[in-house]
């Protein structure tokens, strides 16, 4: 003999057990995703001529840095690239940009077991015509505590030589040949 429960009794049993209860949608309670902030600035050589642009898109977990150097902008080959602590490219050797962004005093180098510091970035390759295109990510924030756009800003510095990503203090990257202000 088969026994059937009336539909309302079955629904009442399921509701009491929580099987029909619905939690508020997590998707519906989230704030809409904020579009990444975009920052753009010229990259200049030691003569003060614009040789390219830097574009930064700042997301929730990382920023994406895009570097575009026009033909003739850099000597062909690999170049170290770093975030420096002060947004000042006013002197021809770009020394006013100070040392790397490095709030926690880590050692230099993406391959250093005691690093990297917050200013460390991958090398940039310039083609035979001196142009370069790169897009890299960094966990260093654009805004907020420890951000690139702090009180005195920061700078993107491109060096004459490649960075070996281990030796101190700047991986043998040599002279500063290009600079872009981040403020």
UniProtKB/TrEMBL annotation:
This is Superoxide dismutase [Cu-Zn]. Destroys radicals which are normally produced within the cells and which are toxic to biological systems. Its EC number is 1.15.1.1. It comes from the Bacteria. Gene3D superfamilies: Superoxide dismutase, copper/zinc binding domain (2.60.40.200). Keywords: Copper, Metal-binding, Oxidoreductase, Signal, Zinc. Residues 19-40, 96-150 are annotated as: Disordered. It comes from Methylobacterium longum. It holds the Pfam family Sod_Cu. The keyword NADP does not apply.
């Amino acid at each position: 003999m088969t026994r059937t429960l009336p539909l309302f009794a079955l629904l009442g049993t399921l509701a009491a057990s929580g099987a029909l209860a619905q939690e508020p949608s997590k998707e519906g309670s989230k704030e809409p995703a904020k579009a990444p902030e975009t920052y753009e600035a010229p990259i200049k050589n030691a003569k003060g001529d614009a040789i390219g642009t830097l574009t930064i898109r700042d997301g929730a977990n990382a920023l994406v840095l895009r570097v575009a150097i026009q033909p003739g902008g850099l000597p062909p080959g690999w170049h170290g690239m770093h975030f420096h602590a002060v947004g000042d490219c006013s002197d021809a050797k770009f020394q006013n940009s100070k040392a790397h962004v490095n709030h926690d005093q880590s050692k230099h180098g993406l391959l250093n077991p005691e690093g990297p510091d917050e200013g460390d970035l991958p090398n940039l390759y310039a083609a035979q015509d001196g142009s370069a295109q790169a897009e890299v990510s960094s966990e260093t924030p654009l805004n907020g505590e420890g951000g690139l756009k702090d009180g005195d800003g920061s700078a993107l510095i491109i060096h004459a030589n490649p960075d070996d990503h281990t030796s101190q203090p700047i991986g043998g990257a040599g002279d500063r040949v290009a600079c872009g202000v981040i403020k």
